[in-house]
Amino acid sequence: MALKATNPTTTNAWKKLQAHFETIKSQHLKDLFKSDASRANDLTVQWEDFYVDFSKNRITTETVNLLVELANELDLKDAISKYFEGDIINATEGRAVLHTALRAPKDASVFVDGENVIPGIHEVKTKIEKFTNSVVSGEHTGYTGKAITDIVNIGIGGSDLGPAMIVDSLQYYKNHLNTHFVSNVDGDHYQEVIKNLNPETTLFVVVSKTFTTQETLSNANSIRTWFLESQPKEAVSKHFVAVSTNIESVKNFGIDEENIFPMKDWVGGRFSLWSAVGLSISLAVGYTHFESLLNGAHKMDEHFKTADFNANIPVISALLTIWYNNFFKAESEAIIPYTQYLNQFATYLQQGIMESNGKSVDRDGKPVNYQTGTLIWGEPGTNSQHAFFQLIHQGTKLIPTDFIGYVESLHGNKDHHNKLMSNYFAQTEALMNGKTEAEVLSELKAQSLGEDAISKLLPFKVFEGNKPTTSLLIQKLTPESLGKLIAMYEHKIFVQGIIWNIFSYDQFGVELGKQLAKSILNELNNDAKSAVHDGSTQNLLSFFKENC
Ligand code: F6P
């Protein structure tokens, strides 16, 4: 059954939200806390090892109730069932969206075209487990009999970002294998990665759902050519494996069928790390940790499916985006993890969120008359505090920000962890409270400044505050808690798409640039004049050709 298609702005709840917004838009968070003693508790959700405090957002419990009313009016519950049950909710590509099935237990049943997909998923997982164990233990050796020491993941977009982010985030749990990632078609990228590698001890994992992606195929071809400069052809099968839906093209590339880890087309690229695309993760941290990651995601799936919307972490989080994006007209959201391990987390989410919800046509094929997808950005704290926080504190833009922190640090240095977390707590307080004129005045007077100097400085030192934040406090960074966190954002993306009445699981916009690049490449390689360009592009091309 297809997803319903309703313009959210025509619902009763939307109208109520608009009226409610008028009453709340100028209220200061400090006053909201003063007028409601139980606000901090009422607007916090505790679930498993997650403590999620929504109370520093510019909402009241009435706002949450109205947003939930909106979700109900738009049949979110029904849409969630369709999502998990394998309905063709990626209608423009005629596919189900089933990354959730990849982390479902063995005894679950999810049907696609009348077939239960769960046994097939577990077959691939068993293959991943066996292969991982044999590489990690040294049983699988390179062609010359030496143990594998280095893994190179060759892929781009979802075939790179997820595995790269997870391997970086879980480096504390890593085994002895060195893991590298080649993604950019920029030849300098792969050259830099392979320059110190020994082909005899390196395993290349070519990851491409379609096996047609220019970047990945170019990198895989160039790396294979480099490999064959020192190794015989028969060595390829010991050193190249692939992950793809396109088995024939992988075989044509020269990879044996037994070295192919299959995936299905109902796994979207940006949600694919749970599939065989996660092979590099499994190799890097071991299969047991890979499975814990999947189990964590499954637990979040269950929470999302069963919790009341008022206490449902992904649902509230998604509805807050609607609130800020469509009522406050905020344009971006920042994601700030207070752990260096999650260094690549915002970059990873940029694809998930912006490729999914960067859409301007609704599910009826009509242009939307409201704002959709948000800009996503962020860097770990405390580094980001010394880079762009000034704009969040005192700039003209409203930037709702997620603060992700952990109760325990992994290496257990309490001194550093307390310093780190004191910043985590201080920033959300500072963003909310700001600094009033009276506070600045007394501070400047205490510095014995003259009245003239004080009145000149005063306006620059006042912080309005009232900047919304959500604090996610998680017990510890483990494979399982990371799985939960990623799944939380995945479901947030889904809910946003349902409310905005758009299709979140295609990405046609990415295709146009790819097509144009193909014909321009022909011009660069063959000096052909295949297209008429605008004046600017023509000049740039001529300059490049004359000078290269
Ligand atoms: O950027 C477009 C895209 O299709 C992404 O959605 C995908 O993750 C990426 O390209 C890589 O695609 P593939 O895995 O087929 O090589």
TrEMBL record:
CDD domains: SIS_PGI_1, SIS_PGI_2
UniProt keyword Ribosomal protein present: no
GO term, biological process aspect, one: glucose 6-phosphate metabolic process
Keyword Hydrolase assigned: no
Catalytically driven reaction(s): alpha-D-glucose 6-phosphate = beta-D-fructose 6-phosphate
Active-site annotation: 355 (proton donor), 386, 514
GO CC entries: cytosol
Record localization: Cytoplasm
Entry's EC annotation: 5.3.1.9
Key words of the record: Cytoplasm, Gluconeogenesis, Glycolysis, Isomerase
Major subcellular site: cytoplasm
Pathway stated in the Swiss-Prot or TrEMBL entry: Carbohydrate biosynthesis; gluconeogenesis; Carbohydrate degradation; glycolysis; D-glyceraldehyde 3-phosphate and glycerone phosphate from D-glucose: step 2/4
GO molecular function: carbohydrate derivative binding; glucose-6-phosphate isomerase activity; monosaccharide binding
Enzyme class label: isomerase
NCBIfam families in the record: PRK00179.1
Role according to the record: Catalyzes the reversible isomerization of glucose-6-phosphate to fructose-6-phosphate.
Family of this protein: Belongs to the GPI family.
PANTHER family: GLUCOSE-6-PHOSPHATE ISOMERASE
Protein name, entry field: Glucose-6-phosphate isomerase
